[in-house]
Design goal:
By secondary structure, the protein is mostly helical. The protein has one domain: MetI-like (MetI-like fold, Orthogonal Bundle), CATH 1.10.3720. The chain is built from 13 helices and no strands. It is flat.
Length: 292
């Protein structure tokens, strides 16, 4: 009797989990699919009393994407986002990997203080320090008599990387702590120094965690709006800022197809990246939770 009751409770629990997952999947897939369909509709399919917002497009209007890329300059914004995101990820990994490795594997004076400083950075909301960052960069422009610290994609990438360091170091150092010390001891016996051991042995072993960091930070950099809107005042604006401008213009012009085409342009790269690294992402998150 007890086994039958436990089996029935388990089956009910599984049914509940499946139903919850199906509802969650539908709540995510339906809005995304609706945006894709809306990006291919004409304006007449959005306005009117008898319009069905969930109906398929009567005719595929691919010109919405050409208008978004051309007249709305979404192609230029897309290129700026690609450059800024790539630069930010490279700078972040170049700084975070050695820092997290040293904090996780070595004992030295000031280690606890440095680690506590990075951990404190986890509780700092970046949106609250945007204005001080802007004032600091604009003051640097005035003091040096230059204009390179604002509207600069490299500076924006450095700001992105700096604000993401606490989370990245926290995640990577936690993963490095799980790796056995036997690998480092074997590398030292073979004549490898600390730097070569890190590059040749430890970083390749931390690949799942690195992929997880890249994906999380890519999504953060790609969709970031407030810092880019503040620091890119006149040119080199990124895709979220360009999308906001596009939505404001096309809403006034009641050109909804072009507006949704802009949304698709923003979503597609993130969807493709997530599909490509989905298995590595879950692997990195699960391995990062192991202990020695």
């Amino acid at each position: 009797m007890k086994n039958s009751k436990s089996n029935s409770s388990r089956s009910l629990y599984k049914i509940f989990i499946y139903i919850a997952l199906i509802i969650l999947a539908v709540s995510i897939i339906v809005p995304v699919a609706w945006v894709f369909m809306a990006s291919l509709k004409s304006n007449a399919e959005f306005v009117g009393k008898d319009v069905n917002p969930f109906a398929f497009p009567k005719k595929l209007i691919w010109e919405n994407f050409s208008m978004a890329f051309g007249k709305a300059k979404m192609g230029e914004y897309l290129l700026n986002s690609v450059i800024v995101t790539a630069l930010a990820l490279v700078i972040l990994l170049l700084v975070a990997l050695p820092a997290s490795y040293c904090l996780a594997r070595f004992q030295f004076k000031g280690r606890k203080f440095i680690n506590a400083g990075f951990m404190a950075g986890l509780f700092v909301n970046v949106n609250y320090i945007v204005v001080p960052i802007f004032l600091m960069l604009s003051s640097a422009n005035r003091l040096l008599g230059v204009k390179i610290f604002l509207n600069n994609r490299l500076v924006l990438a450095i700001v992105y990387a700096a604000t993401s360091l606490p989370f990245t170091i926290y995640l990577l150092s936690g993963y490095f702590k799980t790796l056995p010390k036997a690998y480092e001891e074997a590398a030292l016996i073979d004549g490898c120094g600390y730097f070569k051991t890190m590059i040749k042995i430890m970083i390749p072993m931390a690949r799942p965690s690195i992929i997880t960091v890249i994906l999380f930070n890519f999504l953060s950099f790609w969709n970031e709006y407030i810092i880019s809107f503040t620091l890119m005042t006149t040119r080199n604006k990124t895709l979220p800022v360009g999308l906001q401008n596009l939505m404001a213009v096309e809403k006034t012009a009641t050109n909804y197809g072009v507006m949704y085409a802009g949304l698709v342009i923003v979503m597609v790269p993130t969807l493709i990246l997530y599909i490509l690294v989905q298995k590595k992402l879950t692997q990195g998150m699960s391995l990062g939770g192991l202990k020695d």
